[in-house]
From TrEMBL:
<dbReference type="InterPro" id="IPR010097">
    <property type="entry name" value="Malate_DH_type1"/>
</dbReference>
<dbReference type="Pfam" id="PF02866">
    <property type="entry name" value="Ldh_1_C"/>
</dbReference>
<comment type="similarity">
    <text>Belongs to the LDH/MDH superfamily. MDH type 1 family.</text>
</comment>
<dbReference type="InterPro" id="IPR001236">
    <property type="entry name" value="Lactate/malate_DH_N"/>
</dbReference>
<keyword id="KW-0520">NAD</keyword>
<dbReference type="GO" id="GO:0030060">
    <property type="term" value="F:L-malate dehydrogenase (NAD+) activity"/>
</dbReference>
<feature type="domain" description="Lactate/malate dehydrogenase C-terminal">
    <location>
        <begin position="240"/>
        <end position="404"/>
    </location>
</feature>
<feature type="domain" description="Lactate/malate dehydrogenase N-terminal">
    <location>
        <begin position="95"/>
        <end position="237"/>
    </location>
</feature>
<dbReference type="InterPro" id="IPR036291">
    <property type="entry name" value="NAD(P)-bd_dom_sf"/>
</dbReference>
<comment type="subunit">
    <text>Homodimer.</text>
</comment>
<dbReference type="InterPro" id="IPR022383">
    <property type="entry name" value="Lactate/malate_DH_C"/>
</dbReference>
<dbReference type="Pfam" id="PF00056">
    <property type="entry name" value="Ldh_1_N"/>
</dbReference>
<keyword id="KW-0816">Tricarboxylic acid cycle</keyword>
<dbReference type="InterPro" id="IPR015955">
    <property type="entry name" value="Lactate_DH/Glyco_Ohase_4_C"/>
</dbReference>
<protein>
    <recommendedName>
        <fullName>malate dehydrogenase</fullName>
        <ecNumber>1.1.1.37</ecNumber>
    </recommendedName>
</protein>
<dbReference type="GO" id="GO:0005739">
    <property type="term" value="C:mitochondrion"/>
</dbReference>
<keyword id="KW-0560">Oxidoreductase</keyword>
Length: 412
């Protein structure tokens, strides 16, 4: 979405808001002009859409501004053939910190979060090379103020007063490496960062991206417990990329409009622990046994697909940044009072016998509000077998993370 000096968002007949969006001013109210008799269907921020509606709150608009947009649509119903303008003012009110902001994921993630008019401050932290990233990003004319923090001595300052902490810090996967190969390095990084979060912003939503997520989220939980500030409703493992990939691959395979596709992905965030529930795909679509097998394996191995394609130069950074930005945006919408926010995430859960499990959840102002247990009901035979098969590996990863955190506590 371009940000220029213009302040009007124009939408014409049967126009995708992704194609005919004019601009979003960073400081002035912006208007929405309706020039057709078509009702609006959906407007959802980072998600492309073929039409615009107010059935759910906008990803870029807060609760009050979304209500105003609804009111403008009601007004339109009374003025069938008249063009009119209604002014809306997004309220930038939330502070976000990215820990690892100078890295391959951190930089594009920071750019995407900078685009949100709901973010008032964006704190960028890394051990080095973050000042240039922050300076570059600060030139974008969107509401949030960008501040840089470098090195351990400034970590606490980066976290003071923030509402959402996002942690992509760590080393990326290289060809031949598994997520477990990353464990020894990234586990220590996550431990140190979470200790700082516990000391400086214990009430913030915490988004863990650093792999292996199946282990780093349990590590974070144990560190927060040791600090006496653990709130399981506010600790999230970002598994959104699995959903993004599942939606993309299914839409391509079945020739569906991507905006319409929603595939819940449960389990964990590595290899066979990633289980796309293709039988729960919306809109409802049938798959052959061969298609189920092919799609499931591709979704599970999509990270390796990127690593191999980059031939030693990196792992999934851009798609991961997009997926993480989507999850951050959902969290901010929930904090802003949107009562209809659902995402898949790897969290402390009682849906299975495992202490942590990825599933679709409802997010509210205080974090996880509900688990969507119906997704695990009525599974196909293939999905049920896959669910049972993933549990031992996921259990092992969870226990590995917990053991690491407890060992560190004893050593300290």
């Amino acid at each position: 979405m371009a940000a220029t000096s213009a302040a009007t968002l124009s939408i014409g007949t049967n126009v995708s808001c992704g194609r005919k969006v004019g601009s979003l001013s960073q400081s002035k109210p912006f208007g929405v002009r309706f020039n057709s008799q078509n009702s609006l269907k959906s407007f959802s921020g980072l998600k492309a859409a073929t039409s615009v509606s107010c059935e759910s709150d906008s990803s870029f608009l807060g609760k009050e501004t979304s209500a105003a947009l609804r009111g403008s649509i009601a007004l339109k119903a009374q003025k069938e053939n008249q063009s009119y303008q209604y002014h809306l003012q997004p309220q930038a009110a939330f502070k976000v910190a990215i820990l690892g902001a100078a890295g391959g994921i951190g930089q594009p993630l920071a750019l995407l979060i900078k685009m949100s008019p709901l973010v008032s401050a964006l704190h960028l932290y890394d051990v080095a090379n973050v000042k240039g990233v922050a300076t570059d990003l600060s030139h974008c004319n969107t509401p949030s103020q960008v501040l840089d923090f470098s090195g351990a001595s400034e970590l606490g300052s980066a976290l003071k007063g923030v509402d959402v902490v996002v942690i992509p810090a760590g080393v990326p996967r290289k060809p031949g490496m598994t997520r477990d190969d990353l464990f020894n390095i990234n586990a220590g990084i996550v431990k140190n960062l979470i200790e700082a979060v516990a000391d400086n912003c214990p009430d913030a939503f915490i988004h863990i991206i650093s792999n292996p997520v199946n282990s780093t989220v349990p590590i974070a939980a144990e560190i927060l417990k040791q600090k006496g500030v653990f709130d399981p409703k506010k600790l999230f493992g970002v598994s959104t990329l699995d959903v993004v990939r599942a939606n993309t691959f299914v839409a391509q395979k079945k020739n569906l409009k991507l905006i319409d596709v929603d595939v819940p992905v449960v389990g964990g965030h590595a290899g066979i622990t990633i289980l796309p529930l293709l039988s729960k795909t919306k809109p409802s679509v049938s798959f052959t046994d061969e298609e189920v097998q092919e799609l499931t394996v591709r979704i599970q191995n999509a990270g390796t697909e990127v690593v191999e394609a980059k031939a030693g130069t990196g792992s999934a950074t851009l798609s991961m940044a997009y997926a993480a930005a989507r999850f951050v945006e959902s969290s901010i919408r929930a904090l802003d009072g949107d009562g209809d926010v659902y995402e898949c995430s790897y969290v402390q859960s009682d849906l299975t016998e495992l202490p942590f499990f990825a599933s679709r959840i409802k997010i509210g102002k205080k974090g996880v509000e509900a688990f969507i247990s119906s997704d695990l009901q009525g599974l196909t035979e293939y999905e049920q077998k896959a669910l049972e098969a993933l549990k031992p590996e996921l259990k092992s990863s969870i226990e590995k993370g917990i053991a690491f955190a407890n060992k560190q506590a004893v050593a300290a």
